[in-house]
Amino acid sequence: MMPLTLVDTRKQTSGFRPGRPFGVDTVGFLCGFVIAIFCLIFTGCKTTSSSGSKVTATVIVEGNTPARVLYVTREVFIEHGYKDMPAVGVALTFEKKGNTMDGLLYGNWTEGVWLRARVTVVELSGGKCAIDCNASYVRDKDAGFMEDEQTRPGSGPYRKILEEVKQRLAFPDPAYSGNR
Question: Which among 33-42, 49-58, 145-154 has the top mean pLDDT?
Fold first, then answer.
């Protein structure tokens, strides 16, 4: 007869095993950790579109050329304390420093907030033009890619400013007949 030998069939549950310190698959753990860090870093980042389709305020004017509408719009915004930026086609951009309340609500700890209005004139049929205004708050102005522009909720003062433009343009430009 053969001598009976006892064999320990229990799994080793403690001690050092090469490639699996602390009983954890090192490669799998590191891959999971890197993926988790990647998700945490990049899911919080958001790029906002500064040319959103949502229009803050719009008015329709009749009997004026788009050039005259742009000229009068520029005059009115400057009278309201806005600085004009270089124009691109039939679009104007205006900026001014926000007030204390804007700074408290939408600013950051280092500086206040700026108000930015992008005004576009769209020529319609029948001698009409639409004046569209997209308004936003700007934090960290002139900071390049760190500049943060957020759409301004509501029409606020922009509806009144555009109504003032419309009132000034109520009398048609004598040089414009409306027929082309």
Answer: 145-154
The pTM assigned to this predicted structure is 0.61
Predicted local distance difference test score (pLDDT) of residue 7: 61
Q: Determine the structural domain holding residue 67 and report its residue range.
A: 57-168
Instruction: Please count the CA atoms within 13 angstroms of the CA of 165 that sit on its side-chain side.
Output: 33
Residues 70/121, Cβ–Cβ less than 8 Å: yes
Q: What is the DSSP string of 34-45?
A: HHHHHHHHHHS-
Contact status, residue 169 vs residue 161, Cβ threshold 8 Å: no
CA pseudo-torsion sign 25, 31, 35, 41:
positive
155 inside domain: yes
> Domain holding 68: CATH number?
3.30.310.80
Residues of the chain with pLDDT > 70: what percent?
A: 59
* Pairing of the two strands 128-139 and 83-84: unpaired
Domain count, the chain: 1
Distance CA 7, CA 180 (A): 103
